[in-house]
Amino acid sequence: MNQLDREEQELLDSVEAGEWHSVTNLPEAIKQTRYYAQAILTQMVEIPIQLQLQQEDLNAVKMKALKEGGRTNL
Asked: N or C: which end of the chain has fewer CB within 10 A?
């Protein structure tokens, strides 16, 4: 039998203790969760940071942003 790591054991214990419940109306639960997430995200404040990157790493980030449709004004 495979041994569970600490996190897996905590999850199993939680399930066995009856702490998990089925969602009765999944579409509504998803809608509500998205609403809460959006509310939290709108409260976030942008904080300026500075990073030092090698040129090749910066180029890789810019290429990934272009592929994903993001901004590249770095």
From this structure: N
pTM for the full predicted model = 0.39
DSSP letter string, the chain: -PPP-HHHHHHHHHHHTT-----S-HHHHHHHHHHHHHHHHHH-----------HHHHHHHHHHHHHTT-----
18: its two tokens = 């009856």
The pLDDT score that the predictor gives to residue 72 is 59
Q: Is residue 38 part of a domain?
A: yes
CB 27 within 8 A of CB 21: no
Structural domain of 62: 23-74
Q: Which amino acid is at 15?
A: V
